[in-house]
């Protein structure tokens, strides 16, 4: 089943995994050490993130390392940018209103 990237980031554990591997590539065991859950649960989260192409796998010897796929993160950022612009406009309007009230 093909998953949507927004379904993937909806889960707090998967967002935490993304944060971890954004800093450096990690093995599933190294990732699992940061959570109070089973290695199998982390593997399931990694599979979902891989299906959405948010993470990529790289074989190094006997280990598999997961790292963040930056291009997919840019898709999320582009989608959010439309709302960021709306929020920024509203904050600017609020600043102007507060400045007017303060005078």
From TrEMBL:
Gene3D superfamilies: Winged helix-like DNA-binding domain superfamily/Winged helix DNA-binding domain. Residues 1-88 form the HTH arsR-type domain. One of its GO terms (molecular function) is DNA-binding transcription factor activity. It comes from the Bacteria. Signal peptide: none annotated. InterPro entries: ArsR-like_HTH (IPR011991), HTH_ArsR_DNA-bd_dom (IPR001845), HTH_MetalResp_TranReg (IPR051081), WH-like_DNA-bd_sf (IPR036388), WH_DNA-bd_sf (IPR036390). Keywords: DNA-binding, Transcription, Transcription regulation. CDD domains: HTH_ARSR. Pfam families: HTH_20. This is Metalloregulator ArsR/SmtB family transcription factor. It comes from Flavobacterium hydrocarbonoxydans. The lineage of its organism: Bacteria, Pseudomonadati, Bacteroidota, Flavobacteriia, Flavobacteriales.
